[in-house]
Amino acid sequence: MADAAKKVLISGGTGFVGSAIVRALAEKHPNFVLAVIDQSPPQSEHILPQRTTYMQMDITSTEALSRAFETVKPDIVVHTAGIVPDLAERFSRRLEQEVWKINFEGTQNMLDISKKSGVEVFIYTSSCCVVIDDTRVAHPNINEEWPLAFKSTIYGESKVGTNPHQQNSRN
């Protein structure tokens, strides 16, 4: 039985995680219509499938996001966009405003516009940095049942900060 032709919008779709999701969706659901929004154009190591539409934009711009949602009319949104400071900056506060603007405000914009647009499914991605900063060892069993806690990286804090918005946007 063929998949219904769902329209899927992937934010951050040219990054490491986002592009892997795009490729997996293209392979497993060939009838899906895929659209990627990202500030960065696709690079050769994260090349997008041929039938993927790419739109360059900033998720902190509600006007640009609204236009993208009007164009794509997504049934499903996969939100992978975000900024992770380089290792040297990870525990610094120098980029705090930029990280919060993209990871917190950008996520809120994605949620608000998804809700207004009647999106059926919103998938939010993050990492183990939301609950633990020790990335020297693997943490394969971290899941949604772990308690959320503010940690010392601005990335982890900004991602924890978005979770209540994600949960409150279910209605």
UniProtKB/TrEMBL annotation:
Ranges of residues in domain NAD-dependent epimerase/dehydratase: 8-160
Q: Which SUPFAM superfamilies match?
A: NAD(P)-binding Rossmann-fold domains
Superkingdom of origin organism: Eukaryota
| InterPro entries named in the record | Epimerase_deHydtase, NAD(P)-bd_dom_sf
Similarity field: Belongs to the NAD(P)-dependent epimerase/dehydratase family.
Name of the protein in its database record: NAD-dependent epimerase/dehydratase domain-containing protein
